[in-house]
Each structure stands twice: as C-alpha cells, then as structure tokens.
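Morning!

This is the sequence you dropped in the shared folder:
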Amino acid sequence: MPGILYLIPNTLGSTDPATAEPLDAIIPVAVQQLTASLTCFIAENAKTTRAFLKVVATGHSLALPLQEIRIAELNVNTPEAALAGLLAPLLEGIDAGLISEAGVPAVADPGANLVRLAHRHGITVRPLVGPSSLLLAVMASGLNGQSFAFNGYLPVDAALRTKRVRELEQRSKQERQTQLFIETPYRNRAMLETLATHCNGNTLVCVATDLTLASESIRTRSASQWKQDLAAGTVPDFQRKPTVFLLLAD
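The structure's back. Tokens below.
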C-alpha cells in the first residue's frame, strides 16, 4: 500500500531560533509532531528544510537524526521526467512530506505537478494547516474575499508590467474581483510606483509585507493616496522583503 504524501507548511520567514517568531504561533503543534515523525521529504530547498526541521526538533524529537533524514529536491529546475522518481519512496509504502521554501506547498510553488502525479498513482494526499501569505493578505486587505485571483509574477519590463496592471485592473472592475500578485522583493518599489501611477486614483491597493513576522506591515490605500505617500517618502519599509500586492477597482 502506498505511503501518504503530506503537504507540510513552512514558516514565512526566519527559521533561526534566535530571531524567528515562536513556531507554535505559526505552525500547529499537531503539524509539528507529524513533521517530526517523517523520515522522507521532498523539498523546494534541502538547506532551508533542514533549518526548519532543526526548529521543529527543539520541541519534538525527530524520527531519525537530521543527517539520516532523506530530503530530495523539487524546484523550478526539476524536469518533469524526474517527478516519478520522487514518488518512489511513497510507492514503496513510506510516508513523505512535501515542503515549500516558505508557506504552503503546491500554491505558487513547483510542488503542484508532483501532487497531481501522486493522485494519478492513487497516493493519498493530505494537506496540513499552516500559513499562506496569499490568504493572509486577502484576509487582512479589506478587499473582496468572495472572489479573488492570484496572478503570480507580473512582467519585469516596465511597459509590459504597466500593460498587465491595467488589464488586471479592468478585470477587477468588470468582475468585482480582487487581483493578487507578487514581485521579486528588490523590485517592490517599482511595482508600487506602477500601481500608483497607472491605476485609477480610486482603485484600492494593498501592500502586505513580512506576513506573520515581527516586522509585518499591511496597508490598504487608494492608488492616489499611494502616489502621495511615494512622493512624501512615507511608504512602508518593504524593499527586499517578501510582499503580496492586491488591487480592487472601483
């Protein structure tokens, strides 16, 4: 009988016990206990997964010494042909955990294809409770939580980014739908400048940074207000920090 593929949430920030938020405040104890019981993981990044397991181990004994735990990597560079091999331990009856670099796996994360393949093989998939920056941002934004769409990364090119923002704003207006997207952290300011400059002044824009961390910042303002903040230098300290952007057109 195949093992179970557990979808294990990771923290959204530091896993250094000296600087991280208390794990119990972010990851349910039952999820930590189950994570500690596993001996096989499929991870976006083996190094950060080991760091996370070290934090889990401060409160729950690991099933094996950390160096003996199997951690195979699955990231954007993993070829489709390699996915079947990642499922081999599960097909042998071993339970395994799929874990993201941050947040929940298989959402804005390369793990989705592996989950789909697991279903094809009749492997039980069990998602576990933990932080999702996207859902947390929707919750805290005050924008429409009944209808929303995640659009991933927008184009890097300024002209193409502006075109895409306008398309999303129009879609938001037509469907009354919140639009979510993310940016490489060092381009956060450029993204906000695009939103403030090219959106209708009444369009609501939320900037949600460092969710669940001590430095968390969530602010919703109209595009025209953001434009004033940029000119006055009163925008949040969000440069080079993980940020979710949301907009809702009037």
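Headline: The chain has nine helices and ten strands.

More detail when I'm at my desk.
O.
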